[in-house]
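Subgroup meeting minutes
Present: P.N., E.W., G.H.
Scribe: E.W.

1. P.N. recapped why we're keeping a running log of single-chain structure predictions: easier to compare across weeks, and new members can see raw inputs and outputs side by side.
2. G.H. added today's entry (249 aa).
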Amino acid sequence: MRIPASPNFIKFFQVLSQEEKSLFLDRIHTFFKTKVSGYSNITKFRGERIHPSLKSIKSHLFLIEGIDYSESWEISFFNTAIPHARVEMSSCHPFLKKDCSLEMEYTQLLLKQSLVDIAEGFDDAPKPLLQKLLKFHPENCFATAGETVWVYLMLKIRALPELYDQFLIDIEPKLPFFEFGNYLIKEVGNDYREIIQISMNQKHYKSFLQQNDTLILNALGQDKMAHWLSSLNIELDTWLSAISYSQKL
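Output recorded in log:
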C-alpha cells in the first residue's frame, strides 16, 4: 500500500452535497493560497479512486509550486454511511525526511483551522529512551491527532468493526455521526475541542476511551447516551466495551 507523504487527514460531514464539497475545496485552496507562504501557483486536476461500494470516487488533485519546491495533494470524498473527506499530500519535492509524520507542520495548521478533524500518522515526537525502544513495536509507532471529541469518536470507529465498515464501505443507512460529535461538544463543553494526540499503543488507547466514556456518561446520563447510540445502531454496553482497536482492521 502506498504511504502518503503527509498524515491521513479526515474531515467529517453531516451531508456530502455538491455544495458542501465545493465549499470545502474552496476553503482548502484558500488555506494554501493565504496561510502557506512561498507558493506562487496552484494547478487543479481530476483523478479517480476505485471503491467497493461507491464504485468510483472522483479525486480532486492539485499541485502547489514554489521556488525549488512542489507538493501534490489529493482530496477524495467518501459518501458512505459516515460521510467524510480524506486529504493527503501524495508526494513532494524535495522529499521529506519522514513520510506520514504527525510532526509535519501541516498537521497543526489544518487542525487549528478546523479544515480537518483527524490526522493519522507516525508518532515522531521526541521521547525518553525507554519509549524510543518501545517504538520498535508497530502499535507504538502510530498516533491519532485532532480535537478530543473527534479523536474519541475515531478511536471508537476503529474499535467497532461494524462501525468501521459503515465509515469505510457501507453507503446506507446514513448515520448521524457528525451530529453526535457536535452534540458531545455542546454537552461536555469546549474542553472537548482541545487538540490532542493519542498513541495507538493499546494501553493508552484503552485508558483514553475509558476516561472519556465516563466523562460523557456523567455529562449525558445513560438514557441520553443510549438514545444517541441507538441512532447509530449500537447498544450502550457494546459501545462501552469497545476500548481497544480491532485486530481485524
